[in-house]
Amino acid sequence: MWAQVINALLGIWLMAFPAIFETDKVIANNEQIVGPIIASFAIISWWEATRAVRLYNIPLGFWLILAPWVLGYDNNTALVNETVVGVLVIGLSLVKGKIEERFGGGWSAIWSKNPTHVQEARNNPIK
Amino acid sequence: MTNKKLTDDGIPPGWSYNPASWPQRLPIVGMAMVGFGIATYLSLFQLNIVADVWEPFFGEGSRKILTSKTSRILPVPDAVLGALGYLADALAGAIGGTRRWRTMPWIVIAFGVLVGPLGAISILLVALQPVLYDSWCTLCLSTAVISIIMIGPAMDEMLASLQYMRRVKDARLSLWKAFWGNKEIEQKVI
């Protein structure tokens, strides 16, 4: 979970960056849109049942690395910042952390063949 | 042989805890009530019942955001809709006993579905503040944080209900009846 706490802080850092470094509107818009999305996905994945949501931040991390080139940044501080944050977000999103509870096989157990909850229900019938 | 885990504690099969127990649900209901309180206060400002709005960090930010064009896109100010959303969340979190993941899947699934979009709208509104209006609104950001924090804890209960519906389907019983709660199905399917 600590990895996703750091990712949430990185998202908030992106939101604050344009005001602190007085960037132009293109950079500001990108960071003020991507920042809150990264922070939200990270916060949702603090809980074990929704830990998989952390993976949604991987494409956003790649976007941060590409954005300075795609959007043509002329601000090196912002370029370095987004590249470093992008790499960190990707790396930290891969950290699954401890899963201590059991969830009947998780979300894929809704459709997968013979999942944990179906087996346990069969082994422990009502009567 | 009876399923002691289920009958005594309401723990779903294959789970280590009951996601519909009160210690699991009360914090979410409490957070939704806080969101409701803040959104109600912001509504009072938007409806001109309160003249000023509390803003400790961003100067005229809250006033700018709360009187912006976006906040008046719909016939009612957006904080009023937010307040109604949080109230619906609190109710959907509070209704039903500790076995409601199988006795009333409809409320659990409605709860999960309510929490999701409210969170998505919150993220959108957070991004729009600086992008369109170059300002921030402290209390608006606080309610957004509340919406996002509520998503994770609401989802585990929905997962238990959806897994129950899967077992009903495997037993070739009516998913429609199970969704609204059905005593006969509850006696056949764990």
Automatic annotation (TrEMBL), chain A:
This is SPW repeat protein. It comes from Rufibacter roseus. It comes from the Bacteria. InterPro entries: SPW. The chain crosses the membrane at residues 5-21, 33-49, 56-72, 78-95. Pfam families: SPW (PF03779). Residues 2-94 form the SPW repeat-containing integral membrane domain. Keywords: Membrane, Transmembrane, Transmembrane helix. Coiled coil: none annotated.
UniProtKB/TrEMBL annotation, chain B:
This is Vitamin K epoxide reductase family protein. Belongs to the VKOR family. The lineage of its organism: Bacteria, Pseudomonadati, Bacteroidota, Cytophagia, Cytophagales. It is found in: Membrane. The chain crosses the membrane at residues 26-45, 106-127, 133-155. InterPro entries: VKOR, VKOR_sf. Gene3D superfamilies: VKOR domain. Its main location: membrane.
